[in-house]
């Protein structure tokens, strides 16, 4: 719903990952309505201005598979 965005360019980020693929978590989940991933790359000498290094996949999981029948315990 673009009339009521969950996040925008002024929203604070929750996490920041730096490093190569082997040094960060390989699977990232969102329990909320949105998940935003922003990627930045540095120029590499000899690559003719080609910023490379990102590869990813995304999947939408059926939320009905994750419904809890439990009750919230006050104070937890």
Automatic annotation (TrEMBL):
Matching InterPro entries: Sperma_CUB_dom_sf (IPR035914)
Protein name: CUB domain-containing protein
Source domain of life: Eukaryota
Taxonomic lineage from the root: Eukaryota, Metazoa, Spiralia, Lophotrochozoa, Mollusca
This protein's encoding gene: ORF1801
Native source species: Arion vulgaris
């Amino acid at each position: 719903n673009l009339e009521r965005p969950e996040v925008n360019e002024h929203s604070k980020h929750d996490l920041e990952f730096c490093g190569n693929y082997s040094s960060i978590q390989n699977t990232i989940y969102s329990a909320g309505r949105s998940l935003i991933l922003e990627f930045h790359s540095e120029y590499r000498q000899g690559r003719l201005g080609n910023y490379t290094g990102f590869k990813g996949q995304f999947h939408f999981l059926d939320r009905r598979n994750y419904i809890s029948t439990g009750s919230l315990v006050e104070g937890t």
